[in-house]
Structures are given as structure tokens and as C-alpha cells.
Amino acid sequence: MTRLAHGLVIGKFYPPHAGHVHLVRTALARCERVTVQVLASTSESIPAALRAEWLRAEVPGARVVHGLDDAPVDYADPHAWDEHVKVMRSLLDPDDPPVDAVLTSDRYGVELARRFDATWVQVDPDRRHLPVSGSAVRADPAAHWWALPAPVRSWYVRRVVVLGAESTGSTTLATDLAAHLGLDPVLEFGREWSEVRPGGLAAPWHTAEFDLVAREQARREDDGAAVSPVPLLVCDTDVLATTLWHERYVGHRSPTVEALAAARRPDLYVLTGDEIPFVQDGLRDGEHVRHAMQDRFREVLAATGPRLDDPADVVHHLGPAELPTPDGARPGVPWFEVRGDRASRLDQALAAVGPLLTTPRHVADPLPQAGTDAF
């Protein structure tokens, strides 16, 4: 089979899925060069640059670019076609050979290929080989989890962080919650570091150590999200908690750790109460600082987002409420504090986690389509 010189693959990739990856890999097998164009509208809520980044990770042999395309989507309107193709041509590299192949699954590829004076290559007609679409993923990502590349799964995963002062049962609750859901929790790296750090617990603490702990905690979280079998991750602490332990042990705030924490926002914080007896395990400061640290946790969480009077109230923070406001402000992270015995704490956590697990992460609707029966 003669290889074509330059294949073009276009789409919203909102989000990328196995069908898209198969389409691009087919293009790479058939063409000397492949350009993939992520054409996004201002109505969509997953940034085009992020979608392009996800695709580059999956199909490194292709040139993946992104651009803004707010033209009406009407396959029967020649003027709409003119506007779309104008955007596509603007994203082509002038040093590349002319496009001589257009690869699509849907039949609009006939017209797109005609406008580029190229050959149309249809891949997986009617999605018989890979029955998945972007609209289906957006409606129910869990049902199409098999079709999502790792970075897309990581984005869709809802993250629940259990945290609290020393000896408040946060590790116990995180472990119980994950086990109840059939998951592995993301374990706390800071404790592991405390056990092996040079000089032991008596040595002075340094900001560089907390930078290390924060980065490793973030890495573990991201790795866990990418391989989670469901769109949920349970974390025993996170980088926000690391900022507070830096305050405690170094004596002042850390701009670097706080910057990393600000860039990583979970879907829910569960604060474990300090009403239970203190247990010294050889690594903890002691009862004399526990309640003050717990108050600091409450203070920071209150600045991060709304406190829930009832764990089930998390439903009011899902759906469109998850999207940034028109001025770009991000919604706060809801949180609540669990108290009581071990079983009661698990029940309280499950009351909030249940809606998180069953409600897909909200994404804004793309532009409506018209003229889909034109081909």
C-alpha cells in the first residue's frame, strides 16, 4: 500500500478516547506525516491545550496543534464549512507538504477531503470496532472508562482527601473508605520520610524536605488516578496538609509548597475529628499540640471552601457548580469533619463519597450540531 504524504485528523477531542487514538494511529501507519488539529470552541470547559497535551502523550509521532473554532457546526451550510476550513488551514505548518489524506470515522470526511483536494480515508465506520464517542464519554465516563487514555482518566477521577492533625484517625478512615470501595488508598509519604530522614526526628527540618514530600505525594496521587478502576481516588493526606506541617516544623510558610497545593484541588476534604484519645506511636509530637494543629486545619480548610453541615450536601457542589465562574474564579473545595467511632466515621464519609462516585465530572456542552444528515 502506497503511503500518503500528509494526513489530516481533526476533531474536538472532547475528551480524547480510544476511538481518537485508533484514528490517529491509523493515520500514522498510512501517512508520512500526520497533523492532528484540536478545534475547540469557547463554550467548552476542558482547555484545548490540555486536550492537545493528552493526545501528544498517546500519539507522539503526530504533530498535534490546537486552535479556536467558534464557527457554527452545520454540515449542510457551505459558509460554515468555509469558516472551519479557514481555521484548519491556519493551523497547518507551511513547511509541510500539502494535505493529501483526510482521515475520519464519520462521513463528513467526504466534504472535508474535497475541500483539501485530498483522499478520504474512513476509519472504523459507525464505530463498530470501538463503540465510543465524545458525547457518550461526557454523559457517563465511568461506563466508558475502558476507552479513556490514562491522562484523561486522571482528569476525570474525583479525589477525596482525608486529613487531620496527628492521631485523629485519618489513615484509618482513608484505609477503611478505600477498602469499602474496593480501592487502594494513596498513602502518606511524609510519614515514610519521617522514618528514614537523616538525623531522625531530632534533626532540624528544612523546606527542601517538604518540597520533596509534596512532590512525591503529588506524584503518587497522579499515578493512582491514572490507574484507578473507577472515577474516584481516596488519599491519605495531600499537599495542602504538607503546607501546614511545614509551618509546624520549619516555623514559617513555604511559597513553593503552597504554590503546588494551590494548583492541586481535590473534590472533597474529609477532616478527621480530634475528639478521640491520643495515641503515641513514636513519631508524633504529642497531645499538647494536637488540638492547636486541628484548629489550624479547620482554619485553612475554611479558607479553601464551604464547610458542609451534612456530608450529603456535597451534591449541591456538583454539576454546573463545578465550573469556573464567568470571571474565571474557581469554586471552593467543600469539606466536613467526621467524629464518632470508626464505623460512624466511615458512614459519614460514604454519605459524601456516594454522590461523588455516581455523578460524572461536569463539562460544558459543545456547540450544537446541525445538518448531520447531509452525508
TrEMBL record:
Species, as recorded: Cellulosimicrobium cellulans F16
Task: State the coiled-coil residue ranges.
Answer: none
User: What name does the UniProt record give this protein?
Assistant: NadR/Ttd14 AAA domain-containing protein
- Mind telling me which Pfam families this protein's record contains? AAA_28
Q: Which residues form the NadR/Ttd14 AAA domain?
A: 159-305
Q: Which PANTHER family match?
A: NADR_TTD14 AAA DOMAIN-CONTAINING PROTEIN (PTHR37512:SF1), TRIFUNCTIONAL NAD BIOSYNTHESIS/REGULATOR PROTEIN NADR (PTHR37512)
Check the record and name the InterPro entries matching this protein: NAD_biosynth-regulator, NadR/Ttd14_AAA_dom, P-loop_NTPase, Rossmann-like_a/b/a_fold
